[in-house]
Design brief:
It comes from Aurantiacibacter atlanticus. The protein has 235 residues and is an alpha/beta fold. The protein has a single domain, classed as Glycerol-3-phosphate (1)-acyltransferase, CATH 3.40.1130. A 7-stranded mixed sheet has the order 1-7-6-2-5-3-4, sandwiched between helices. Helix 5 links the parallel strand 3 and strand 4. Helix 3 crosses helix 4, helix 6 packs parallel to helix 7 and helix 7 packs across helix 8. The protein is globular. The two termini are 22 Å apart. The mean pLDDT is 92.
Length: 235
């Protein structure tokens, strides 16, 4: 696995660099979202293919039928880089709330910054929250779903998920159904892009309707996510 992981990291870097020559061309063309977003998803599909071919990581999705038509607030646990990449494939036109530092990643950061990403500056909590809410409302008005990792940072597999304040604010502001998504990616995709072979399970739970009680929503969503995360943890 050490050799395979080394080859995977090299292949990941090469695959990403292949997109670099496109940046000036897309910039001259006016950074058209209609082209950049499909290219970003192509990059994500390539990474998942490389992780399968070289790292032995496959994934399965339960509950695809639970995804409703129209925009939803997707709430997923955060264990690794895998789910951020996979979300671009699993939910093709989703806007992901992510830390601003991700957009500084060479090459792919440029594509992400011009794709449906909602960066948040965690050093400026109040103004960053207002901007996040405005950006999310804009994306929902455009017909996109919004994905947020409620913990705000990666957590070890089977860790208890505790929602940050932003989840309730988003639910209250957007007034759309919520979709809880659990997975166990952190068991196979580790720090520093070290992979272990196996199958990642993604579980999409039934949608939670828009309610008038945000506090009740937080409890229901948090309980449902924690129950599923524990169920997916290795025994």
């Amino acid at each position: 696995m050490f050799v395979r992981n080394t080859i995977f990291r090299a292949a990941f870097a090469l695959w990403t660099l292949l997109f670099a020559p496109l940046i000036p061309l897309l910039w001259v063309a006016g950074t058209p979202a209609a082209l950049i977003r499909p290219l970003t998803r192509l990059w994500a599909r390539g990474v998942l293919a490389l992780s399968s071919l070289l790292g032995g990581i496959r994934y399965t999705v339960r509950g695809r039928a639970n995804v409703p038509h129209g925009p939803v607030l997707i709430i997923a646990n955060h264990q690794s880089a895998w789910e951020t990449i996979a979300a671009l494939v699993l939910f093709p036109d989703v806007a992901i709330v992510t830390k601003q530092e991700l957009l500084a990643t060479p090459v792919i950061g440029w594509f992400l910054s011009h794709s449906p990403m909602i960066p948040i500056d965690r050093t400026r909590s109040t103004s960053a929250m207002r901007k996040m809410l405005a950006d999310c409302r804009r994306e929902v008005a455009a017909g996109r779903s919004v994905l947020i990792f409620p913990e705000g940072t990666r957590r070890p597999p089977a860790s208890v998920v505790e929602f940050k304040r932003g989840v309730e604010l988003l639910y209250r502001s957007l007034q759309i159904p919520a979709l809880v998504v659990a997975h166990n990616a952190g068991c196979l995709w580790h720090e520093n892009m070290t992979l272990s072979p196996g199958v990642i399970t993604v579980s999409i739970l039934p949608p939670i309707a828009s309610m008038s009680d945000p506090a009740g929503f937080i409890k229901d969503a948090q309980d449902a996510l924690n129950k599923e995360v524990i169920a997916l943890a290795p025994r």
